[in-house]
Amino acid sequence: MKSIFHYLPLFLLPAFFLPLAHAQYGFDVGIGFGAMQDKASSNGLDYNTFASCTTATDSSCVNTSSLNSVSMGISGNVMAWKHFGFGAEVNFQPGKSTYMNATSAAGFNLQSRMTLFDADAVYQPVRTKKVAFQISGGPGVANLKFYESGSTGTAIGSSNYSAYVGSNNHFQVHAGVGVQFYLTEHVFLRPQFDVHYVNNLTQFGSKVVTSETVWLGYTFGGQ
């Protein structure tokens, strides 16, 4: 929940356009639940230097994991015209995932957390009171944070720790497609599939991060 409140100010930016949405074709807000994926890198990571390495030649090299995690999101869209609008989305891992397991070799794990920020143009070629087909796309930022975690032992007992190591920001381009089903006049469910091309994403096996999200939302104003 802390992650939701952390990104809430960005999510609320489209609210400044709420009067326009009421006068035109609606303002959508939503919270999403889903997953994000990317394959593992073919290289490993040296647990002493955190440099890229190969397990065949480096004894301190450990394989890294793929990105395969549950995700959450918040979104807001302003449909300023009948078929066209604009909006923003944030998708993030609510928890940390293991990126490099070096417990047996070095006594710690390296964990990661991915966050995807998108600013989108929105196109709805089909829009009725019951369903809307939605295509979105635009630029954004991918933020990948890393944490070192492990346990320490003292005379008074053992304790777990987690320390922030660093982060990387990458420019990314997003494209998504979804179908918005209205459960009531204003409440909707929108299953959505997204592709994020992340420039210079060397921490995983490809520059393409995919995600699937089911958005539960509310439309303010008329349809």
Please summarize what this structure is.
With 223 residues, this protein is mainly β. It has helices spanning 2-11, 18-23, 103-106, and strands at 27-38, 44-46, 52-53, 61-63, 67-78, 84-92, 97-102, 108-127, 131-154, 157-182, 187-198, 208-220. Strand 5 and strand 6 (84-92) form a beta hairpin.
Provide a descriptive summary of the structure in words.
The chain has 223 residues and is mainly beta. A hairpin with a 2-residue loop joins β9 and β10. It has a single domain, classed as Porin (Beta Barrel), CATH 2.40.160. It has three helices and twelve strands, in the order ααβββββββαβββββ. The chain has an eight-stranded antiparallel barrel with strand order 1-5-6-8-9-10-11-12. It has helices at 2-11, 18-23, 103-106; strands spanning 27-38, 44-46, 52-53, 61-63, 67-78, 84-92, 97-102, 108-127, 131-154, 157-182, 187-198, 208-220. The two termini are 31 Å apart. It is elongated. The longest helix is centred in the first third of the chain and has 10 residues, at 2-11. Mean pLDDT is 86; it is low at 1-5 and 7-23.
**Physical arrangement of strands within the biggest beta sheet:** 1-5-6-8-9-10-11-12
Count of separate structural domains: 1
Q: What order do the helices and strands follow?
A: HHEEEEEEEHEEEEE
Alpha-beta content class: mainly beta
The major pleated sheet works out as: 8 strands, antiparallel, barrel
Percentage of residues in strands: over 45%
- What is the multimeric organization of the chains shown? single chain
Give the CATH architecture.
Beta Barrel
Number of helices: 3
Which radius of gyration do the C-alpha atoms yield? 20 Å
CATH topology type: Porin
Total strand segments: 12
| Morphology | elongated
